[in-house]
Amino acid sequence: MRARLLLPDGSMRELSLDADETVVIGRDPREDALGEVTATPTRTRVETADIPGISATHAAIWSSATGTHVLDLGSRNGTWLELPARRAATLPAGSEVCVGLAVVPPSRVPVAEPVPADAEWTSAAEFPAAIARAAKAWLDALGEDATVIVDRDGQDGAGVGGPIPLPHGLYLHVHPSRTVDAHWLPRMATLWRYVDTQLRFLEAEECSREEGLVLASAAMRAAHRQTVEAATRGQRLMLLGPSGAGKEGLARAYHRHSGRIGPFVALNCGELSRELLRAELFGAEEGAFTGSVKRLVGAVERANGGTLFLDEIGDIPLDVQPMLLRFLDRGEYTRLGAYGQVLRSDVRIVCATNRDLRDAIQQGRFRQDLWFRLSIQVVEVAPLHERFEDVLAYLRGRSLGGGLSVLEALAPEAIEVLRRHRWDGNFRELGNFVERLPVAARPREIDEERCRRALHCGAIRTTPRVDDEPRRPHANRERWVAWCETALQAFAADHVDGLPATWDEVQELLEKYLKPLLMVRLGLADEPVPRDRDALPRVARRLAEIVRADRGTALKQLTRFVERFAADPDDGEHVHGMRSHSPRPRP
């Protein structure tokens, strides 16, 4: 009799059995594993398949006068039999069988499991260890008992799917510590895809670093990752953040990863008047405006097939905005002075601004429909004072005389001064600071005083940043307990049955009661909150700065706070207390 074994790694093994023979198959099979199974032949031999997914003693196969038999010996992952056409499960004697050990039918493969979290690294040298940590954390969360190591051995060891290649000739090995179940193979496939994605992010970061973009802080690396994803998906990108924080560097990274063969063209909308901006954007015929002596090719036309970076998009005049809107909708434009001559251009658009465009929309200075066309992917670029890791990386990469880096030349007290500085000019101010330092310096020679002088020479404000931060309440344990109690009281007042009893009600407590209360109390302490809806965006901007949240989240939670924790009838224009609601019965 012949049998074929389909193994979890996808390989096939041929078996030949004599008429009076039983084969016991497993990772470490025992001949005596059949126990009291009397129907089996007297002669037994073992077949070893040392592959994760196969149990130590997995299954037995034998043939008798009544047919061909397959017995699962209590394996963890099961034994699957491939039946010949029009055959029942009991196969005729002498039939050739195909037995799958721990091979799961497609309907039994698990789906929709979580994927590993993005790895955290600051340089290519840290990447392999970061991947190993992320993979191990993911497997632990899934309940998989496995060892994750990085080494230079590229041989296929005990890990199903083989070692996963990493940079610098290294490999990621995943070794299960016990018999794996049906989830293992799909999870290893997920891990391969995850490492491939992380490698693409690493390559993108290394390219951007070579072009001078500083990517050390988690905030900037996240912004860069969002930018690369938008580029690969062909999405329009809106970069929000202060001037000098690295937005143009991100725009160039977008172009590099967009796969476009056309050029990268940058246009600063804040530098030009209305007429000049329109001409620079869409082009102009000779004599179309005063001083025009030849045809001007606009940025839209020059960027055909590539990327157009519109910097300071918040400064674009209102009467030019409809022209840009039409171009975004149809890809069509008209040169100034060439009315009726419609041209077309295929460009990807990246915009940037340091203005609050949401506020500009409320004030009527920016079209809402233009915002929705441009903001397919919105990336917020944090100011430099929130990214001190990037400050250190920049200083580490700049040299003084003798090859000494600026960071090595600074005393610890001087570094602390830099940590507390405002950096209103972001990287422009940081670059100027480095230029003012002495060319020749020994390690740790630049002390606190010399550092302060170099900073204050070009700073707009000279007091430490921490002294000028918005006032924040002292959130001690007692205040936290009181805030949580207030949220619970408000929930109980709105529900007949009092405290939450289902998971949906727990989520309702968090989203509609606790989060709004904590947002306002952490940011504004006991300061009264205006009930006037028109005033809420202004308060939300200040609240977002204090608690370091985005403005949209601050406005949403502030609005919820006003809606639920309302003023007493005689309280005037501001919100202090908790409004009374009619209790709502539980469904």
Report on this model:
Helices cover 36% and strands 15% of the residues. The longest helix is centred in the middle third of the chain and has 27 residues. The chain contains 18 helices and 20 strands.
Key terms:
36% helix; Rossmann fold; 587 residues; Tumour Suppressor Smad4; 5 domains; alpha/beta; 5-stranded parallel sheet; 18 helices
Percent in strands: 15-25%
The third-level CATH topology of the largest domain is Rossmann fold
CATH class category of the largest domain? Alpha Beta
Instruction: Give the structural class.
Output: alpha/beta
CATH architecture classification name of the largest domain:
3-Layer(aba) Sandwich
Summarize the structure.
The protein has 587 residues and is α/β, with parallel strands linked by helices. It has helices at 127-141, 184-210, 218-233, 247-257, 274-282, 299-302, 321-330, 357-362, 368-374, 388-396, 406-409, 412-419, 426-436, 448-456, 477-494, 503-524, 536-547, 551-564, and strands spanning 2-6, 12-16, 21-26, 43-48, 59-64, 67-72, 79-82, 97-101, 146-151, 164-165, 171-176, 237-240, 264-268, 307-311, 332-333, 343-344, 348-353, 377-380, 529-530, 574-575. The chain contains 18 helices and 20 strands.
